């Protein structure tokens, strides 16, 4: 089980091969997030704009440091023209660490230390500066806040013996303060987004983000691939709840969780979006695959819950799932739709839940906005998000169940 989570949190290797409309991805279980690496491979292939890393120089004085004590950082692309006064903040994803051993491992990677972060990264999808690739947000000020704490920017404690700093909440605050000093304080429009662990962070910090600005500023939040569900795995255990319990306890997360939740629920349960979204006041858009590939592999059918390997092939390639396995996955989709039932009643909130085997779709150009992007009806993700943000339409797009959607960019792992 520990090796599985190390695999989710650290590493770099990847390759891909596009076959018959599917992305075929190879990964080593001891390497980092093949989902993120796969997205990076697509970004590089599209020859995107590369944006340099800025370290937050005054962060250390505030105790806002990465796991290893190095300075946190972000990548900033300045806006222009009609977007010069608008800001899009994107919170990087990359799993979590739930015990000292995995956090020590993590601090020796770009997910725990700015020493190992890329000096430049590609801006694609919602971060693209090309109007043909990103029609609504191309000329905004765009920021990618790097993730180096391991608790979705919410922890605040330390482990002196292990030389670990769990300062995600301080990193969030230091970054926002730095960006406000660089012009974000006068934003006319602002959007907080994030993918995976960053998508969870965009939910956790959504109302905090709103409170940074005057009431006259239009502020909304987007969570991509961040709707992690508290569900039973194939063995009847709650793998993700048990894992989150370690994250919350180790990294001092409780004090930074919404009071509206922890007043009546265990702090670990308040790390799950399903227990948070109803109380968020700021308009929020949930973009998620109904058959989230990460959750299938790491939460629903992890190796520890499947010692005989019955689910192994299915988790790598949905085309190899039996009818009973597909039935189980349909149950997961049903739980996701149940979780968002009340959330969807508010017209200020938006939804795009497509019936794909995918994870994170806003930062990849091919899934965000391209000639063959995923659709619900005739609407690609970028247009759905834009229509919602600019109040052009109420967006509550929920796909029919698998296998009806032929526009998916389903992930297939080798």
Automatic annotation (TrEMBL):
- Which GO biological process entries does UniProt record here? cell wall organization
Pfam family example for this protein?
Answer: PAE
| Record keywords | Cell wall, Cell wall biogenesis/degradation, Hydrolase, Secreted, Signal
Q: Which InterPro entries match?
A: PAE/NOTUM (IPR004963)
**GO CC, alphabetical:** plant-type cell wall
Q: What is its EC number?
A: 3.1.1.-
List the Gene Ontology MF annotations in alphabetical order.
pectin acetylesterase activity
To which protein family does this belong? Belongs to the pectinacetylesterase family.
Q: What is the purpose of this protein?
A: Hydrolyzes acetyl esters in homogalacturonan regions of pectin. In type I primary cell wall, galacturonic acid residues of pectin can be acetylated at the O-2 and O-3 positions. Decreasing the degree of acetylation of pectin gels in vitro alters their physical properties.
Protein's recorded name: Pectin acetylesterase
